[in-house]
Fold:
Amino acid sequence: MKRKILTAIAVVTMACEAIGQVAQHRAIEYGINYNPTITFSQKQERPPAYNSAIGVFAKYALYKRVGIGAGIEYQSQNVNTTTWVNCDPLEQYFFCQIPGKDEFDVIRLPIWLSLNLNYNPDSKIKVELIGGYAFGKLQNANEKEEAYGLLDLTDKIHFAFTGIEFKKKVCEKFNMTFGTHIEFTNIYDMRYGEIQNLKFVLRISR
Structure:
């Protein structure tokens, strides 16, 4: 686990340095993001799971109100599970729920469009509507295929997301952004339930 965290930090640091060098020559906003996440499932009896993502990003203003952004992230995508087992010593029909957790490590490449909702261009807080897509590659999984029947788990994960963000300049060169996104993903086959992420966005950029 420590090796994974150190590797993720090293990748994020190198990517941030590369983006910073490019941004010095162009009008590009760049920075780091940290996203605490709550994961829900529509099917099965799965309680919410708590995850997080960390990464770097860059944004470019296409027009006055429209921008495009992209980045690279490491995300822990854990899903709580339950399974039923026979708890009756007489082997009758008495079943108990046993909680479990499927743990996934994902590298994501998100890309999104942003729409500035402010009527006043001099507003101190910029409000942006976000919509985008992320491609994810499964790096590690400890799920138990036989126990939970997750035979259709995919290692190429697709995320669709939308949300709203609030950005404020905190000093001469830096911006702070807060927001929320809702994500939908195909990490399981559909018959095992759709997975949604409620993501809280924190960005620091310049």
